[in-house]
Amino acid sequence: MKLNVLLLAVFAASIAACSEDPDVTQSTYNELGLSASIVSSLSTRSIKEGFVAADVVSVFVTGTGYTPKLSEYTFSGTLWSSPTLDTSKIYLTSQIATVQGFFPSGTPLNSTILTNNNTNGIEVTVDRSESSFEAAGQIDYMYAIADRTVTSSEPTAALAFHHGLAKISFIVNRSATFNGSGEITQIKLTKTAGFLTGTGVMNLETGIISGLTETDDITFTGIAISNKYNKTPSATKTFFGLVAPIAATNSITLFMTIDGKVYSATLPSGSPADLFESGKEYLYTITIKSGNLGIDSVFVVPWETKESGNLELSLSPIRKNSE
């Protein structure tokens, strides 16, 4: 289903000095306030466009003098709550810090997370088969870097969450000559070593995914009904799913099982469908004809950026419980 993005996030974290600096006073402490948005245009249970109550995101800061620490923030449906325990909160000083985040929280971290800014990353898993036509079993991995660095005197920044995977969608219409019910039960894409699946690492600064394994095919199964014939072809999407970004998609063969019969077609190999890029949707319009499939058009639709509202935080000094 289509939703407009509305993500309102405030990561409220008490501010305190580094343990190495005993002379820092409470006046250097301040709260970290963030607004956030998701770069998206489509939402299901797993493709996130807006957060719902009980959703959790992970946030951390890196910078000189900071001991990297990962903290989780929970959405109430209206506001985001910082960790309850003081020891779990993020603390800022007058030193410059870079704020990063990722979703879903709890995603396994790679071994160098929080120890080397160049390789901060989370584990991502992209299966070669998915038993849904609406990405219900897939995870929409996202990463975010604040729009600027923060300090205790300038503690507010904005996070824009970007999708790490690409999205493929199909509009499937029946032609005037197709007399079946148009029930689709499988969509399969094949290309020798042309796709990437398995478990890899998504860099939280660049979104680049490494470590995945090459595979010849990816398959989606489910039940969907193609759009009925109309002189004005329907624009209703019949299927969408997530795939790992790949450098080139030339010579991909599409197999679609319709009314128990397998139809095939070669996807266009030229621009704009010559690669799958993260954060972009590849929309294929297909017509079912007697005996074959026709690929009518291909468009690349960037997922839209929707700005969130902002919630103001008190900027009064805050002292750590331990002080």
Structure in words:
The protein has a seven-stranded mixed β-sheet, with no helix packed on it. Strands 6, 7, 11, 12, 13, 15 and 16 form a seven-stranded mixed β-sheet that branches. The radius of gyration is 23 Å and the shape is elongated. The protein folds into two domains: 26-163, Fimbrillin-like (Immunoglobulin-like, Sandwich); 166-302, Sandwich (Immunoglobulin-like), CATH 2.60.40. The chain has strands at 33-38, 56-62, 70-75, 80-81, 98-103, 121-126, 129-130, 142-145, 156-163, 166-174, 183-203, 209-210, 213-225, 239-243, 253-258, 261-266, 280-289, 292-302. With 323 residues, it is mostly beta strands. Residues 1-27, 41-45 and 304-323 have low confidence and may be disordered.
Radius of gyration: 23 Å
Helix tally?
Answer: 0
The shape, in one word, is elongated
Average pLDDT for all residues: 74
Instruction: Give the helix proportion (percent range).
Output: under 10%
**Unreliable segments of 5+ consecutive residues:** 1-27, 41-45, 304-323
Content of β-strand? 35-45%
| Text of the CATH class of the largest domain | Mainly Beta
CATH-assigned fold name of the largest domain: Immunoglobulin-like
In short:
This protein is mainly beta and 323 residues long. The chain contains no helices and 18 strands. The protein has two domains: 26-163, Fimbrillin-like (Immunoglobulin-like, Sandwich), CATH 2.60.40.2620; 166-302, Immunoglobulin-like.
